[in-house]
Amino acid sequence: MPDTATGDRGDSRQRILLVAPNISRQMGGEGLKALQIHLELRAMGHDVRQVTHARVRDEMRRDQPDLAIDYVEDDVAQIWLHRLRLKPLLGLLNGWQLHRLSRTVAERFDPWVVHFTSPISPVLPYFRMPGRSVVIGPLNGNVAHPAAFQSREPLGKKLGRAVLRPMQALLGLLFHGKKQALLLISGGERTADALAMGGCTADQFVFTLDCGIPDALVDRARIAHAGVNRSFLHLGRLVPYKGCDLAIRALARAHPEATLDIIGDGSERPALQTLVAELGLGERVKFVGWVPAGPELYDRLSGYRALVLPSVAEANGIAFQEAMVLGLPVVCVDWAGPQELLTADEAIMIAPTSEDDVVAAVAAAMDRLGQDGAFADGLSERARAKAMALGFRWRDLLTRWQDVYADAHDRSVRSS
User: Fold this and answer.
1) How many domains does the chain fold into?
2) Which residues span the membrane (predicted)?
3) Which of 4, 125, 270, 305 has its Cβ near the most Cβ atoms within 10 Å?
4) Are residues 363 and 282 in the same domain?
5) Same domain for 386 and 407?
6) Within this chain, do residues 128 and 198 fall inside the same structural domain, yes or no?
């Protein structure tokens, strides 16, 4: 496929309309990724315009006042659906409002391509954008909990999996947005399977990395590991599937000098703090809270021996990519997203056979990594080399996506 940057399939500077419910450094991975895509495409010289929700307006006006953004405003229906906690209907309404405003903006902006960067679920419906070149994704989902961890799976997710096939078939008949678009897929075959249930076809699928890594992180020197270091890290939202409780329980079995810093926040924090107290780990566990991505976080990460993140239902996980780039060894469950990024040559991958097996294996990993700096350094070196070979840098990833944009544009022209 010709490179769009050469002018064979479009000028090097293109008008790109991005659409996402949130673009933010404060609202989780999807919001951060959507913002980073905007900033990186703009830095590459494209004329970028964004459609997003007004809930991020104050942050954007304060931190990114030069971005071109159109906002969806809350209305009475949104407010009441939120108060009544009718999340499926609220999600559908939010999606429709984003699409409606996107159509209006596209009429005056006349973009080369419209890229819906989130939501990432392969199940949530998208609406059509008639006459427009559309890209959606990266999509990532259809992640079940391992059999030994089914008790952790929320009831709503269990019910969703049980009715996935008929629900996808029905949604595919009612909503044609995904069937119109080129689909970026980062969740491998599990995501492709869910999309196929909704009527999407293989010629729409473009497999890709879920996320890029900023230059400020990629350009840092790899963390070198030597000697003894028993400081470990858990990074991410504090929700049940992230497995922070497993890491805490493992710490109780590990060397008595091992420590665990927990960076992030979420609904499970009070329960985790109770667990720490029950296990008598108060001096060894520190709840750091949320630390925004940037130099402060990256400087802090360089002091740890490993990232311990035994998530049991991780679609991908930006934290794993960041750790690979930094050269911070990873201890994770051999399942879903981490399984697609890493092998036993680059990380300690733990089979999810049972909760007790995972806890014991994480504790053993902490002890070996903490004591054996050479072993840790070997994992660090191989993981970073893989990240560099796969092109984790945002600019590298978006350069590849430009070919997808050009392909979407060509398809739209042929069908018009």
Assistant:
1) 2
2) none
3) 305
4) yes
5) no
6) yes
Query: Are residues 189 and 291 both part of a single domain?
Result: no
Residue 8's Cβ-count burial label (10 Å; 0-12, 13-18, 19+) is exposed
Tell me the residue range of the domain where 81 lies: 4-212+393-415
Q: Which residues pair with 206 in a beta bridge?
A: 184
Distance of CA 285 to the CA centre of its chain: 26
In 3D space, the residue among 24, 20, 15 whose CA is nearest the CA of residue 46 turns out to be: 15
Tens digits of per-residue pLDDT, 183-222?
999 988 999 999 999 999 999 999 999 899 989 899 999 9
352, 143 contact by CB (below 8 A): no
What's the rounded Cα separation, in Å, for the pair 68 and 115? 15
Q: Specify whether 204 is located in the same domain as 254.
A: no
Quick one: which of 86, 110, 160, 364 has its CA closest to 251?
A: 364
Among 397, 400, 396, 404, smallest CA distance to 135 is for 404
Q: What is the CATH number of the domain that holds 106?
A: 3.40.50.2000
Q: Which two structure tokens, joined as six digits, stand for 117?
A: 């960067």
- Looking at the fold, whether 235 and 113 belong to one and the same domain comes out as no
Tokens of 284: 């060894």
C-alpha angle 263/269/270, rounded to 5°? 145
**pLDDT by residue (tens digit) across 64-88?**
999 999 999 988 887 787 777 787 7
Assigned token pair, 198: 């909704």
Q: What is the pLDDT of residue 415?
A: 76
Q: Do residue 52 and residue 92 come from a single domain?
A: yes
Global confidence as pTM: 0.87
Same domain for 186 and 148: yes
The alpha carbon dihedral of 309, 314, 318, 323 has a sign of positive
Confidence of residue 416 (pLDDT cuts 50, 70, 90): low
